[in-house]
Amino acid sequence: MLIPTASNFRDLGAGLSAKGAPLRVGLLYRSSHLADLDPSGLATLRALGVTHSIDLRGQEERAAKPYAIEGLYNVPMTVEPVVVRRIKALAASGQLPTALEAQEIMRETYRNFVHQHTPTYARFLRQVLDQPTPQVFHCTAGKDRTGYGAALILSALEVDRADIEHDYMRTNRLYRREAGLEGSMPEDVLDVLWKVQPDFLQAAFDAIDHAHGSMDAFLQGPLGLSHADRTRLQAKLIEG
User: Fold this and answer.
1) 203-209: long-range contacts (C-beta < 8 A, 24 or more apart)?
2) Cα torsion at 130, 120, 32, 99 (round to 10°)?
3) What distance lies between CA 81 and its chain's CA centroid?
4) CB distance 29 to 9 below 8 Å
5) Residues paired with 119 in a beta bridge
6) Per the domain annotation, does 151 fall within a domain?
7) What is the mean pLDDT of the chain?
8) CA-CA distance, 202 to 107, in Å (whole number)?
């Protein structure tokens, strides 16, 4: 584990390829939040040369777990955690969701990334493209908002869809659930909420295809990546 105090921290390019060449490593990282980094974790982050962090957390999450790291410029890009609000509302009414209901809430969350948060993810892709120094992007667990963002980048690079899913599913091996996030729900429901499933990400892909026709059209249209932008992103993040 590269940074134990940010358990889902990893190089987005490691082990992946596109257009017949490996992705570059050392330029773009994905992670769970960085607020609990210990001195060893901070030293690792500095050694990697990371200069910018793209923070996809909501305002309350950011206020509850702030961080200020010398030499690291924080770029907030708020995607509010609607799933948390829905679960809390159900719990407050005494209607704890079943695991199946939680799965549908998660699928709807991913559809909402497409339907409600495309402007934020357009800014996210622009930041990834335009910042020349190493960056890390994260939410709280680094699994949903971060996982969707990673899938957009990898799609723009023309990484095979099966490899995109494999990278997405690595969260279930890497992420360690924090004690304060456990909640008082049954373990099968918590497993849904704090792990990832292929059909969650597929719900976003399906929403993109339904609303925009294809991933390519979505990237070039609502996400604002022109052909020249995409070529530049590939040159930046693919070896060759």
Assistant:
1) 203/107, 203/108, 203/110, 203/111, 204/110, 204/111, 204/113, 204/114, 204/148, 204/151, 205/151, 205/161, 206/111, 207/110, 207/111, 207/114, 207/115, 208/114
2) -150
3) 12
4) yes
5) none
6) yes
7) 94
8) 8
**Residue 5 placed within a domain:** no
Does a structural domain hold residue 71?
yes
3 state DSSP class of 18: strand
CA 33 to CA 66: how far, in whole Å? Answer: 9
- What gap in Å lies between CA 169 and CA 59, rounded to an integer? 27
Which domain CATH number covers 194?
A: 3.90.190.10
Q: What is the count of structural domains for the chain?
A: 1
For residue 177, give its domain range: 10-237
**Does a structural domain hold residue 4?**
no
Q: Is the pTM of this model over 0.85?
A: yes
Gap between the Cα atoms of 229 and 54, Å rounded:
20
Residues 148-176 have pLDDT tens digits of 999 999 999 999 999 999 999 999 999 99
C-alpha span between 121 and 232 (Å, rounded): 18
Q: Which position has the token pair 């957009």?
A: 152
